[in-house]
Design brief:
13% of the residues are buried. The chain has a two-stranded antiparallel ribbon. A two-stranded antiparallel sheet has the order 2-3. The protein has one domain: 2-Layer Sandwich (Alpha-Beta Plaits), CATH 3.30.70. It is 35% helix and 18% strand. By secondary structure, it is α+β, with helices and mostly antiparallel strands. It is built from three helices and four strands. It starts with a helix and ends with a strand. Bound molecules: iron/sulfur cluster (2 copies). The site of one iron/sulfur cluster has 14 residues, from helix 2.
Length: 110
């Protein structure tokens, strides 16, 4: 039977392997997302949960949140916000794409 220390050591090794795999996946994702001056961010409204992560990382004030009315009057929530990209200030830096937890943002050609 494994001792508590052995289990903790194995757990640490697994954590390291998972972290390395996630970092590698993130780096690959970052390398494949197009960006730059010829691109602009785009929010797929249905996937946006209004979490505000994209506005925090955007250094160019190119994202605004707006209130969206619920489609059904039967559903009552205090806030239903969505993100909107302001095309002119967007520099195509891609930070919002990497920050969005629901993959709601993609980069499109200007
Ligand atoms: S990070 Fe994504 S889900 Fe959150 S507000 Fe921005 S677009 Fe919406
Ligand atoms: S691509 Fe960069 S500048 Fe454009 S909205 Fe996203 S974070 Fe802001």
């Amino acid at each position: 039977m494994s001792t508590r220390d052995e289990v903790a050591s194995r757990r640490g090794d697994v954590q390291k392997r998972i972290r390395m795999a996630l970092n590698a996946a993130k780096a690959e994702e970052r390398a494949t997302i197009k960006g730059g001056e010829t691109t602009v961010a785009f929010v797929t409204e249905a996937q946006c949960i209004g979490c505000d992560q994209c506005t925090i990382v955007c250094d160019d004030d190119a994202i605004e949140l707006y209130d969206k009315a619920m489609t059904s009057p039967l559903i009552q929530v205090d806030i239903n916000r969505k993100a909107k990209i302001l095309r002119d200030p967007c520099t195509g830096c891609r930070l919002c794409v990497l920050a969005c937890p629901t993959d709601a943002i993609s980069m499109i050609d200007r």
